[in-house]
Amino acid sequence: MVQSKLATIALVAAIAVGGATSALAQQTLKWAHVYEEGSGYHQVALWAAEEVAERTDGRIDIQVFPASSLGKEVEINEGLGIGAVDIIYTGPSFVERYYGPIAISDYPFIMSGYDHWKTYRDSDLFAELSEGYKGATGHTVNGLVYYGQRHVTSNFPILQPSDMEGLKIRVPNSPVMLMFPNAVGANPTPMAFSEVYLALQQKVVDAQENPLPTIQFKKFYEVQSNINLTGHILNSLLIITSQSAMQRLGDDAAVVDEVMKEAAAMVSQEIFDSEQSLVAWFREQGIQVNEIDKGPFQEAVKPMLTDMTQVPYDMDHFERLQALQ
User: Fold this and answer.
1) Superkingdom, according to UniProt (predicted)?
2) What's the domain count of the chain?
3) Can you give the residue range of the structural domain that contains 212?
4) When comparing pLDDT for 15 and 83, which is higher?
5) Taking the CA of residue 210 as centre, how many other CA atoms within 13 Å lie in the half-sphere pointing to its CB?
6) CA-CA distance, 290 to 228, in Å (whole number)?
7) Could you tell me if residue 105 is inside a domain?
8) Is the pLDDT of residue 8 over 60?
9) 132 domain-assigned
10) Buried b (16+ CB within 10 A) or exposed e, 244-274
C-alpha cells in the first residue's frame, strides 16, 4: 500500500514537473527570406534574433534562413500557413494574393519618396491594411521595411518608354510587378529572385529591375552594363509572423513585435542611406548610370493607378495615400 502511494505521488510529481518544463520550454522560430547572407536584411534579422533571445531570457530562439534556403518567395508565403516557417520578409506584391489592398505602396510611381513612405509606414492607413491582412490570413504584420527605389538594368541605355518596347525584362512573380513593364510595352518575364543572375548572364532575359543596394549585393552589375534610374517603384518589404507562432509565444509575442519594428526601422534607414552613395560607386566600377526624365514613364502608368479594374485597392485607399505626402 505504501509503495503504491509512493508510486502514485512520484507519478503525479513527474507529470507536474513535465508540465512545468513544457510551459517553460524554449520556442524555436524559423525566419525565412530570399536575400543573401551579406545583405542588410539578413544582418538585421540576426540582430533581431539576438535581441529577442536577450529580452525573453532565452525563451525564444529565432533561427534565420537566408538566400531561399527554405523556399522561394511564393513558397515561404505559403509556408506561414502550414507551419513550415514562422517569420518571413516578403514584398507587399506577394501578399497581394491574400489581401490585395496591402500591396498599394508597391504600385508604380504611387509613392513620392522616402519621407512619403515613412509617413505611410506610421499611418492609420497602413495599420488598417495590416489588420485587413491579419483578418484574411491570421498572420501578423510586424513591420514595414524600406527596400528602395527600383531601377531598370540593361545592356544599353533606356532613356524613354519606347526604349523598353519588346524588352524581355525579369520581374518578381507577382501581379503588381507587371504593371510598369506592360505600360511601356516591355515583355515582363516572372522569375524567382535566385535565378536572375544566371538568366541575365545567359541572356535568357535582357534586363531586370531592382533597387541599387540589391543590384550591388546580387552583383547584377557584373552581367549588365547600364543602370537606368527609372525609380518606377518605391519598394517595401513586410516582416510577417504566422498566426500559429504568435499564439505559441503568449506574452512574449509583444516582445517579438517590438523587436521586429525596431529591426524594420534600422534596416530601412540603412538601405536609404546606401542608396545615396551607390550611383557614384557603380560609376567607379565602370557601369553606365543613366539619369532620365521620369515624366513620360509616369504618364504611361498614371491611368492604370486609378482604374479600379486593374488594382486591388479602392479609390479611398488611393486618395488617403496621396494625402499623406
Assistant:
1) Bacteria
2) 1
3) 26-323
4) 83
5) 23
6) 5
7) yes
8) no
9) yes
10) ebbeebeebbebbbebbbebbbbbbebbbeb
Residue 65 CA to residue 31 CA, distance in Å, equals 6
CB 278 within 8 A of CB 156: no
- Residue 91: Cβ within 10 Å count: 25
CB environment 158-173: b (16+ within 10 A), e (fewer): beebebbeebebbbbb
Distance between CA atoms of 54 and 49, rounded to whole angstroms?
9
By C-alpha distance, which of 54, 21, 24 is closest to 256? 54
Contact 213, 139 (CB under 8 A): no
The SS3 of residue 213 is helix
Residue 144 counted as domain residue = yes
CATH number, domain with residue 95: 3.40.190.170
Q: What is the pLDDT of residues 198-222, one digit of tens each?
A: 999 999 999 999 999 999 999 999 9
CA–CA distance, 98 with 128 (Å, rounded to integer)? 15
**3-class secondary structure, 86:** coil
Distance in angstroms (rounded) separating the CA atoms of residues 141 and 6 = 51
Does the pLDDT at position 15 exceed 60? no
Does any domain span residue 45? Answer: yes
